[in-house]
Give the backbone structure.
Amino acid sequence: MIKLDNTLLLGHRGARSEALENTLFGFEHAYGLQAQGLSGVEFDVQLTADGHLVIFHDETLQRLCGLQSRVDQLSLIEIQRQLQSGHKIITLDMLAQSMTCPSANFSRSDIPKASVTGTTVTTKTRKSKISLPALTQFTHIELEIKTHDRTNYAKLIQALIRYLVDTPLASLPIVLTTFDVQLLAQLQCNKVLANIPRGLLVRTPQSMALAPNTALQLGCTQLGIHYPLITQSIIQNAHRYGLPVSAWTVNDIEIAKKLVKWQVDVIITDIPTQLL
């Protein structure tokens, strides 16, 4: 447990080491930590072959589903035939539906319940209904948009509009984050999406040097930095530009304490229960 002061704590992909990542059950687990001080969650979306946005991190289904196919090669129906430790791969609109109509379309017996030993997530079955009304109580949600060299940007932009504009998700405190400066430039120029806050993600020392200027030029409102790159001076410099800093992915309590002392704005972690 650490004293967070003014730093927000987010669960990475829900709460990755405590419940299966990027699943409704994982989000439900994270929402249960709000009373202890969890401020929000981070999760990933990427485009299917037929233009849907699935909440999934990896470029292929190999690690979680045992299928080598890429997400962008498959239709939503093909993807949802696969289960990840018994959990369905969900879309952004399924998340929206769970907000407006709790338990609708998601009630089923034998929903796997996760338990954790060390960093290994295991599951057992339970009878339950998924309900996520607490999603609306979070103060910060980071939605990372995954892209690659095959990304169809026009299709991606249309999908983001369809899922995020005039839907229940529009009311949430979402920041769209990505490493992709081309996508950030297109979001900045899009009249419909430009008002949604955006964050530039940084993972290399080379990109770190120009990150504040790049973020400002692209109209970003925050920087998301791989935590080993972060120093106190980097945080102070970002703050001089008016850019909050989000540190990912921090699973060491002493490092988290140091980042809080340096006044980092957000810490993203796989192990929120151990830091709260």
In short: Residues 161 and 191 are 10 Å apart (CA to CA). The two ends are 5 Å apart (CA to CA).
